[in-house]
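Tokens as discussed.
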């Protein structure tokens, strides 16, 4: 039996009032449509995931995918599918994906309200708050000189 969930925006988390699980800005939605059309990826969605990053905090990944896995959540925003595994969804609740261009090129970025900037001197850290809501220190054990 498949446990794939399909959600129409906005998804509201039980403990976060009126916060969508994950949303695309209009520019990001438009750019994704453009890229998917250029690459003939009409039956694909964008997988968005979170990985631990040590001193750098959370790291995000994105890839086009045509076959969601069991227990994935599919967020459908105006026909653009975002595919997120359950563990990543915990960290991405309320986040948004935007697209920006600069002199170095363009790219997608995730604005996540669930992280705080640690100020760790060994990298621009962004860490999730723990279950009690307290902000932890440097993820690299304090050896980076961040005095946490």
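Sequence:
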């Amino acid at each position: 039996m498949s446990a794939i969930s399909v959600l129409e925006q906005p998804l509201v988390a039980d403990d976060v009032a009126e916060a969508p699980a994950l949303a695309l800005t209009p520019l990001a939605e438009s750019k994704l449509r453009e890229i998917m059309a250029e690459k003939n990826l009409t039956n694909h969605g964008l997988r968005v995931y979170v990985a631990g990053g040590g001193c750098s905090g959370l790291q995000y990944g994105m890839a086009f995918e045509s076959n969601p896995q069991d227990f994935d959540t599919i967020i459908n925003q105006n026909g653009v599918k975002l595919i997120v595994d359950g563990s990543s969804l915990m960290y991405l609740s309320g986040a948004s994906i935007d697209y920006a261009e600069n002199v170095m090129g363009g790219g997608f970025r995730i604005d996540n309200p669930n992280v705080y900037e640690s100020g760790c001197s060994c990298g621009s850290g962004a860490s999730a708050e723990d279950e009690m809501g307290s902000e932890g220190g440097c993820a690299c054990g304090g050896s980076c000189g961040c005095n946490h």
